[in-house]
Design brief:
By secondary structure, the chain is mainly alpha-helical. The protein is about 60% helix and about 5% strand.
Length: about 260
């Protein structure tokens, strides 16, 4: 970026990302003859969270997938009061309070996986509004932890594909997933059909490369990868080395003359 930006003119460049380490924003402000504007996107308000639920229901109903229809039916049964309860269980402590959309999405994903809401979210609205910041943080952590646990215990072999993706932060195709998950490619495709509509699974349209939401990489690092054996870690690393060595060899090999 430092070399590229000074060389372009009469263009608008959009960069998006999550907060993290480093000083990219400060560095961009120093690029000569360019105007840098930083915009911080806020979370959803309580009313916007209610609109989010309706938008998700509409999207699920439009897919025609039986599993999506079942999840949409479950969301229809969530009253406005209960949806507000979810907001206040998971929201931040700002004034006015807001919530990151991914937390609402994970609550819906839990419903899709478990077939019922997370028990920690089922409480009276007044009680949810009165929760302390520590209690809300604990509920957010429980939601993340229980979603991972449910997937690993109940969605097989899809659980292997999700864990395989957690090793691959630059994304993967079905061949690489099959190798890391120790499945055949048909099993991987069936698993992707099962998890493909969950909010944390992302497919890049140009090449159908599969990714996880950033939050899910962090969750699986904490609740899965940090707990694997040294032997399993070494197996994955050897698998990745063999795969990328083969890819590099294929790209470097020149075609022979007829």
């Amino acid at each position: 970026l430092y070399d590229f930006l000074p060389s372009v003119h009469n263009v608008v460049i959009l960069l998006a990302g999550r907060p993290g380490q480093g000083n990219l924003a400060q560095a961009l402000e120093q690029v000569p003859d360019k105007h840098f504007l930083s915009i911080t996107l806020q979370g959803l308000s309580e009313d916007e969270a209610l609109e989010y639920f309706e938008a998700v229901i509409g999207r699920l109903e439009a897919t025609g997938d039986p599993m999506d229809a079942e999840t949409a039916d479950g969301l229809h049964k969530w009253s406005q009061e209960y949806r507000r309860t979810i907001f206040h269980c998971l929201r931040d402590e700002g004034d006015p309070p807001t919530i990151r959309p991914i937390l609402l999405a994970l609550a819906i994903d839990y419903l899709a996986v478990a077939g019922r809401p997370l028990p920690a979210l089922t409480r009276p609205l007044a009680e949810a509004r009165a929760l302390s910041s520590d209690q809300r943080r604990n509920i957010r952590d429980e939601l993340r932890r229980e979603l991972v646990r449910r997937i690993r215990e109940e969605w097989r072999p899809a659980d292997k594909v999700v864990v395989a993706l957690s090793w691959l932060r630059k994304g993967a195709d079905t061949e690489l997933l099959a190798r890391v998950a120790e499945l055949d490619q048909n099993e991987v495709k069936e698993a992707l059909d099962q998890i493909g509509d969950l909010s944390f699974v992302k497919v890049r349209p140009p090449d159908n490369r599969i990714f996880l939401h950033d939050e899910m990489y962090d969750l699986l690092q904490r609740y899965a990868l940090d707990r694997v054996s040294d032997a399993e870690r070494e197996r994955v690393f050897k698998t990745l080395r063999a795969y990328y060595d083969a890819v590099s060899y294929t790209h470097l090999t020149l075609p022979t003359k007829a």
